[in-house]
Amino acid sequence: MDLLAVWADRQPIRIDRLRRRSPTPPARYPPVQHVAETSAITYRSFRNSDPPALVALWHDCELGRGAASGFSYDALEFLNFSQRYFDPNGFIVAVEEGSDDIVGFVHAGFGPNEDFSALTKERGAICAIMVRPQFRGLGVGRELLSRAEAYLRDNGATELIAGPAPPFDPFYIGLYGGSRPTGFLESDPDAEPFLTKLGYEPAERYFVLQRDIVNTRDPLNFRLVNVRRKMKLSIAAGSPRSDWWWMTRYGRLETLRFLLEPKSGGESVASVTVIGLDLYLQKWHQRVVGLIDLNVNEDSRRKGYAQTLLTELCKRLRDEMVTLVEAHVSESNTAALKVFEYSGFEKIDTGVVYRKQAE
């Protein structure tokens, strides 16, 4: 079966349409260390005319390996601003008086309720914050964060997190983090000192794991050989999940759910979802997919099924000219970390979720 043909048939909206159609607008500021401290900054909420300037700001800020690049403003529109729960009041921009140039922004939002059917506002998330390099050190970031926190508290948040992570990751899926947003990445060195100085503490860490499936050998042992004799890789029909929270975010990306099934018939014993990461092509110069929601049936665990699924999937992806596979795993999930390690994945980054009690 042609995996890419299946992918195209199931996804009427292709994410590669969102890649940059014209050169990224160059920074409008010279590469100096700081602008004058007397520069006047005003703050306002999001406007529909902002996305082109926001894309230029994103690229100027050099957010590190985990931030997509080379995309058009359509990507921000499609993945963030067109969400029905997007609130312009939660997206605050800093503007230089006189020029009306956007020099920074912060984006705050909320996660889902227990059954993933609607938002809950008990916990608020700082999903993104950035300031143009020439305007750092002037208190712009501090003021943006303060205004975002006030927005979250005014809407009922009693706990604040900085760095979106499941399930409190309403925005930037496909744009930041790689496979999925899991906090602010350590490869962006400015995040931790800025947040800890303002009262946030690291609360959870996610390891970013990757496997080069072109230049590494597939793991092989007798246990896997025995499992492969009995099991086969297949593609699930329909969407991987049907709840509103999943559909409104990952439903906008190209996804396929792979299953490990008995050759003799019967229900699958393990599954994982593959996500296209086309918006990272220019940053990583490789054809990459992400893995999320690896699951093994409770009565089928510790039998080598997860490793077999990952190994067979990497073989299939290699045949489809994919070169790199990425997954994120919580530091506390030692069982999953071992499975990915045994499957040839290596840690290349860490995402950190910061927490602060709302005052």
TrEMBL record:
Residues 41-223, 220-359 form the N-acetyltransferase domain. Keywords: Transferase. It holds the Pfam family Acetyltransf_1. The keyword Transcription regulation does not apply. InterPro entries: Acyl_CoA_acyltransferase (IPR016181), GNAT_dom (IPR000182). One of its GO terms (molecular function) is acyltransferase activity, transferring groups other than amino-acyl groups. This is Putative acetyltransferase. It comes from Stratiformator vulcanicus.
